């Protein structure tokens, strides 16, 4: 899904934006309500089109936060949540309602290693440490 339209500031670097718009107000920027409505509409249309399927939607922070804010009654999202880079947010569409299952999870938070995997990592690290120490004078 497309990120928020930043109008005349779209595509500019932070330095260019600061020089052209010192007050931080960008001509033609998409307002929050339009952004939220556009993204929610796309999510609901997709869920309706594929009712028994899992759907992956990829977007940027402003678009994601606008949806999280709306669905959480503004407890999280725009102005409140700093999304982790490449985070995962899970929404559920059931009985014509879209709701948050979880949000702002990193890959590490989603994949919990088993005790066997942890033991394998430790033994691998110990072996690397032994090799490194053996090479030291």
Q: Could you explain the architecture of this structure?
A:
This protein has helices at residues 14-20, 32-49, 61-71, 107-110, 115-135; strands at 88-94, 97-105. With 137 residues, the protein is of the alpha+beta class. The protein starts with 13 loop residues before the first helix and ends with a helix. It has one domain: Phosphoglycerate mutase-like (Rossmann fold, 3-Layer(aba) Sandwich), CATH 3.40.50.
Features:
alpha+beta; 137 residues; 5 helices; Rossmann fold; two-stranded antiparallel sheet
Summarize the structure in short.
This protein is an alpha+beta fold and 137 residues long. It has five helices and two strands; from the N terminus they run αααββαα. Helix 2 crosses helix 3 (61-71).
Please write the CATH class name: Alpha Beta
CATH domain fold name: Rossmann fold
Low-confidence stretches: none
User: Which sequence of strands runs across the widest sheet?
Assistant: 1-2
CATH superfamily descriptor: Phosphoglycerate mutase-like
Run of helices and strands: HHHEEHH
CATH arch. level architecture: 3-Layer(aba) Sandwich
Number of strands: 2
Class based on secondary structure composition and strand pairing: alpha+beta
The separation of the N and C termini measures: 56 Å
Shape descriptor: globular
- Mean pLDDT, as a whole number? 87
Give the radius of gyration: 22 Å
Structurally, the number of domains stands at 1
**What percent strand?**
5-15%
Percent in helix:
40-55%
| Count of individual helical segments | 5
Profile the largest sheet: 2 strands, antiparallel
Give the quaternary arrangement of the chains. single chain
